[in-house]
């Protein structure tokens, strides 16, 4: 379900409509648009003004033929990238944790605050391509050498880089991930493709 985002940096949909997508001039107009059922997050209609939207979430306004995905710019700020209708039918989610529930089923806890039951063999840090709105797994992107990763924190935030290696730390500190000319901690690495990024990327502003 939309509106559960747990990552820092999520924004309320009413603010996005006014300040980012600029489809209204004030929050009163945003409320009207939402009440009319004209806004979808991850292909589900939302009406609450404070419904949060964050990294990888998809916003659709069918009447305006507008689809955007939440991404990060080079300053770590959320940015909404226009996407084609076909790309609005899926999203990427990172597996943050796994829990065994009733009857031995595995519950996957995802970066956007949602949980799903899945038979997929995945590890923490792997990324799932989920169909929208059914949230069914379409593809698993393994966190491994050669994967394309979006850097979501640190000094290289917002960049796409190829995973070159990993280093396991012997302390409580996060494991390290090696890239061509830098390294960062594992939580800052979000796989977005195998040989190239699956998601549309923000334009680089000079």
Structure description:
- One of its GO terms (biological process) is translation.
- It comes from marine metagenome.
- With about 210 residues, this protein is mainly beta.
- About 10% of the residues lie in helices and about 35% in strands.
- It has 2 helices and 18 strands.
- The chain has a 5-stranded antiparallel beta sheet, with no helix packed on it.
- Helix 1 packs across helix 2 (about 25-35).
- The chain is globular and about 55 Å long.
- The N and C termini lie far apart (about 35 Å).
Sum this structure up briefly.
The protein is mainly β and 206 residues long.
Output the keywords.
single chain, about 210 residues, mainly beta, Structural Genomics Hypothetical 15.5 Kd Protein In mrcA-pckA Intergenic Region, Chain A, OB fold (Dihydrolipoamide Acetyltransferase, E2P), SH3 type barrels, 3 domains, 5-stranded antiparallel beta sheet, globular, rRNA binding
What is the topology?
Elements lengths: L10 E2 H8 L6 H9 L4 E2 L2 E2 L6 E2 L4 E4 L4 E7 L5 E5 L7 E11 L5 E5 L4 E3 L9 E5 L5 E5 L6 E4 L8 E3 L2 E3 L8 E3 L4 E3 L3 E5 L13
Antiparallel strand pairs: 1-4, 2-3, 2-5, 5-6, 6-7, 8-9, 8-11, 9-10, 11-12, 13-14, 13-18, 15-16, 16-17
């Amino acid at each position: 379900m939309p509106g559960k985002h747990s990552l820092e940096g999520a924004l309320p949909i009413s603010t996005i409509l006014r300040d980012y997508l600029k489809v209204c001039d004030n929050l009163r107009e945003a409320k009207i648009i939402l009440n009319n059922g004209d806004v979808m997050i991850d292909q589900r209609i939302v009406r609450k003004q404070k419904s949060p939207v964050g990294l990888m979430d998809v916003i659709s306004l069918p009447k305006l033929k507008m689809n955007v995905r939440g991404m990060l710019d080079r300053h770590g700020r959320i940015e909404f990238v226009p996407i084609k209708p076909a790309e609005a039918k899926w999203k990427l989610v990172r597996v943050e944790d796994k829990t065994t529930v009733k009857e031995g089923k595995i519950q996957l806890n995802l970066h956007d605050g949602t949980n799903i039951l899945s038979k997929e063999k995945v590890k923490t840090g792997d990324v799932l391509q989920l169909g929208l709105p059914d949230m069914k797994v379409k593809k698993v992107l393994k966190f491994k050498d050669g994967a394309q990763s979006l850097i979501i924190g640190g000094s290289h935030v917002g960049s796409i880089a190829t995973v070159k290696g990993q280093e396991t730390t012997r302390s409580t500190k996060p494991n390290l991930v090696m890239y061509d000319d830098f390294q960062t901690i594992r939580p800052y690495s979000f796989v977005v493709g195998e040989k190239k990024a699956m998601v549309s990327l923000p334009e680089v502003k000079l």
